[in-house]
Amino acid sequence: MQALARTRTAAGKKAATWLELYGKQDIWKLYLHDQRELMPAAQGKAEKGRLKAALKLAKTITDQVAAEDRQSAPFVLDPTLRPEKHIKPGAKGPYSYPSRHAGRAAAAVTFLSALSPHRAEDYQWMRAEVLYSRLYMAGHLPSDLTAGTLLGDLTGDYELAVSGH
């Protein structure tokens, strides 16, 4: 984490911060919005609801596991990784295992890839960007991202099964 922190650039921080803010759900809703233009209105509305349900479920699951595990984020454990964050001495959260960003991204990728297989590589690329941004900014360890991705994949599969896909 220290070696990666030393390679950060201003542009990299800006991109990672944007992905941190909008990579949780907005990107995935934008992808679905593009797809909805190709569907009948009722189908598009239904797919939007299913995507929102998958994102919400992924958040709920990752948050519940994180509350049980209570693994502090790397920048909390080592404040030198993100000196601009101003962590209070003795702070425990935010918790990093499993990654909520990874869970939501994986759920969205699984769900959206089933709707539009021809765009699956685009979705996977964006998920990789979101996950790397979290590692780059010391928000998560690789194991946090792996666990979040697994939970998100399962969540996406569940939402597809429930919706009949």
Structure notes:
There is one protein chain. The protein is an all-alpha fold and about 160 residues long. Helices cover about 70% and strands about 0% of the residues. It has 8 helices and no strands. The radius of gyration is 17 Å and the shape is globular. The model has no long low-confidence stretch (mean pLDDT about 85).
How do you describe this structure in short?
The protein has 165 residues and is mainly alpha-helical. It is 71% helix and 0% strand.
Keywords, separated by commas or semicolons:
165 residues, mainly alpha, globular
* Uncertain residue segments: none
Could you give the distance between the termini?
A: 40 Å
Global geometry = globular
The succession of helices and strands, N to C, reads HHHHHHHH
Overall radius of gyration? 17 Å
Structural class by sheet pairing and helices: mainly alpha
- The count of helical stretches stands at 8
Number of strands: 0
Mean pLDDT: 86
Largest sheet: none
The fraction of residues in strands falls at under 5%
Name the helicity range: over 70%
